[in-house]
Design a protein that fits this description.
It contains 4 helices and 8 strands. Strands 1, 2, 3, 4, 5, 6, 7 and 8 form an 8-stranded antiparallel sheet that branches. It is of the alpha+beta class.
Length: about 180
């Protein structure tokens, strides 16, 4: 890598001058509640598509891949997303049912990471999600699958200009 490229990368701006404050001592016991609060704050801050996240999966050999997708919901089943079972991510989840989601809201210097096992939700929930998609024409898609990440850990990260970034982690006890 050339030194000029390295210098250019280091000189790129990172976060806006104004960053929200976050005190982990005031965080709710339920990580989904904190996520909903941060998502709402991202919406009010003008973050485009704050429900978009990176999904990381790995194949049966542990080789990772990631791609962007949309969070569909959060409930007692977990953090929902959907894809075709025939897609690369569908095949990887079949072979290795573990994943991580990462939400990044640069305008607020925030990210949320959710990691855990992945389960397939019911055929009825999957069909309902397929039919709710923009452009749905009423036809069935038997390959469409709604999944849920069942968290084993969730980490909330708040950037700070002094580089003493704040990390607030919820472990397995928060989901039992």
């Amino acid at each position: 890598m050339s030194e000029s490229f390295r210098q250019m990368l280091r000189a790129l701006p990172d976060f806006p001058d104004e960053l929200p404050d976050f005190d982990p001592a005031t965080a709710p016991a339920d990580p989904a509640e904190l996520f909903r609060l941060w998502l709402d704050e991202a919406l009010h801050a003008g973050v485009p598509q704050p429900n978009a996240c990176s999904l990381a999966t790995a194949d049966e050999h542990g080789r990772p891949s990631s791609r962007m997708l949309i969070l569909k919901g959060i409930d007692d089943d977990g953090w929902h997303f959907a894809t075709s079972r025939a897609s690369r991510k569908g095949q990887e989840l079949s072979a290795n049912p573990h994943a991580a989601l990462n939400f990044f809201w640069q305008q607020q210097g925030r990210q949320v990471r959710v990691a855990g096992s992945v389960v397939e939700l019911s055929p009825e929930a999957s069909a309902s999600d397929w039919h709710a998609r923009p452009g749905a024409d009423g036809s069935a898609n038997p390959n469409w699958q709604l999944y849920a990440v069942r968290p084993r850990e969730i980490e909330f990260w708040q950037a700070r200009h002094d580089r003493r970034h704040i990390r607030h982690r919820y472990g397995q006890a928060a989901f039992s």
